[in-house]
Amino acid sequence: MLIDMHLHECTCSPDSHISLEQIVTIAREKGLDAVCITDHDSMGLREYAAEYARKTGFPIFVGVEYYSLQGDITAWGIDDFPRERIDAQLFIDQVNAAGGFCVSCHPFRNNKRGLEENLRRVHGLHGVEVLNGSADMEANRTALRFCRELGLQAIGASDAHTTGQIGKYVTWLPEKVTTLEDFVAQLHTVRTRPAIWTGSGYDVVDTF
Description:
24% strand, 5-stranded mixed β-sheet, 6-stranded mixed β-sheet, single chain, 5 helices, TIM Barrel
């Protein structure tokens, strides 16, 4: 299964220029099996995404990109999130209490919104975006090094805000899932691998 785990849709992410319809169309054209909508501090697309997934038969998993006091964290399998900025550890603890899955996104990107060295200070984080479409390759390689050191899941994600970014980097899972619950369960129990769009398909990689 190939899934883009970090996408922003224009309804709830004001800095995005892509609609859900465009996301699904392009994802299918690139051979993806599902997508995740992780809007900035919003899960407002849940109802429409569920309706559109049923209509198209294409799985859409809605999570959130939460801006903690130490940096951005994507999460799935939670019903809600704090409306104010709180400590990253407190948010991670909330995700774990709900049985969810959380990822440090673009931890070393040069926008000061990544966890950076805080990756070593927090506990209970599940994954790290080792390939983020909005980070340069040096930042991604640093993320990969930390991910390996900490024994966390390696995640690939486009962080798309425009159509051209969709599916640039994605995550490989060994089995296809169609529900959010099964998606989160598989993330907790299998080894994920990042994958890179080549222009005609995906290369699943362990290093880059």
